Protein: Amidohydrolase
Organism: Nocardia yunnanensis
Amino acid sequence: MRIDIHAHLWNEDYLDVLDSYGRTDTATQRGLGAGGADAELHARFALNDSAGIAHQVLSITPQSPHFARREHAVHAARLANDQYAELVGRHPDRFSAFAALPLPHLDAALTEMARALDELGMAGVAVTTDILGHSLADDRFTPLWQELDRRASVLYIHPSGHDAHTPLIGEHRMRWMVGAPMEDTIAAMHLILAGIPLRYPRVRIVLSHLGGALPMLLQRADNQYAWESPDTPEKPSLAARRLWFDTVAHGHIPALRAAAASFGADRLVLGTDFPYQSGDLLRRAITAIQDALPEPDATRVLDHNAALLLGRHATSLARP
């Protein structure tokens, strides 16, 4: 079953709520054909069919309901999850969804996670690479990691689009070209240096965009962590192979090959980043994997790994 685990859908009323709470960047998600209207869905399904994609796991990222005000975060998270649950209920063969959480409010996030996973049947949880400027490896998020580990849940991590909090990105028009993969890289290294994959081995952590620059940096990190970050509990290259990575590479074959060589093809899962890769770009997200990897590895990445990642949730999708 060909499952795309990096795909987005944003309803206009959800984005309007974020605007009313002070979000200023929702124009990036509007007018792209990634809403829930019937015409948009039919066009999306036809495109997926043309690429052989049977199923997409939706995430609200980067427009996650992460707000300093608790009531804003809680309302937006419930709205996002309810909208996704309704959509999945109408198209269970086409869609699953990752739950949104009202972070950084841990008690509310744990409550909403339980509702989304236990009552709404979601496939896992999605967050951004930082939570209002705080690293996911920050001790304040320990209760979240503990609950994800107890549940053996999938945690999907997507760039926040906050320029890695550096004006050297944000003031030079590189937010998504450079900033997003840098956010992936930084988040991955935060998790690795803090020993998160080792401490919480039951959490199936997925990084976007091949982990950013991580495939090119692992040997450097292995060579230098002992003196720069000596409390790191294991070699970065070993920790990286405990993670999963989606294949969004904009058709760049050397990047796909580097990721497969660095992490193993068994740690790569299909991602398209719809709607940002649409039309021929979405179809190229499939054929680039076939061009980059030997046939057995390409088949594993395209048609098997996502089901292994999703576990019992994927088993329910396969039932007649």
Summary: The chain has one domain: 3-318. The first strand starts at residue 3 and ends at 8. The CA atoms of residues 220 and 236 lie 9 Å apart.
